[in-house]
Amino acid sequence: xxxxxLLSVSALLMGAVTVSNAQxxxxxxxxxxxxxxxxxxxxxxxxxGDFDSPDSRTSFHAxxxxxFPVAEIFSLQVEALYSGQGFEYTTPEFLGVGGxxxxxxxxxxxxxxxxxxxxxxxxSVEAGPQFSFLVNEEIDSRPNDDAGDTDTDEAKTFEFGVxxxxxxxxxxxxxxxxxxxxxxxxxxxxxxxIDGENINNSINNGVFQIGIGFKF
Length: 216
Known about the structure:
The protein is mainly beta. It is built from one helix and nine strands. The chain has an eight-stranded antiparallel β-barrel.
């Protein structure tokens, strides 16, 4: 229900931005000057690969960006975002003990470098590589309060991935955006057993982001 409410609010925000944009004649895509801004929003993060259907971790992203026009309908956009990622899972239950929700928290500084195409006034699509730098890793056995945090050292400090999404922007600079990012390199460090065989599962980050921002 919480996820449904967040998606509904975000959809309403995008609709309002689209309507406002349709009522204005000016378009940011016609400007050839670099622009900068701030953005933030909600993350729905999980992992995929050799892992048994983990639940999504709901967190946030926030940061800054610069957009550098190359042509009237094409720009390069570089961002630096703090991004809460990872996943949630339920501990096994045995004799009435267990069954608790636990979060594996992986927080990154993400640096996407995106090719941005304006397909209509105020409407753009973007895609490109993303470089991620791990800044925090912990297991939280009590995600709803400040207790239960345990620091770990199982994840790699760098991840390479790709990102793609869509943005609706008004002439005044306010915008709403939706994006999906997919990690292409393994999240976990390699560990080997006494027989020399790799004992780690191969997993990758996957994050769906909904956000709003303002371009100056």
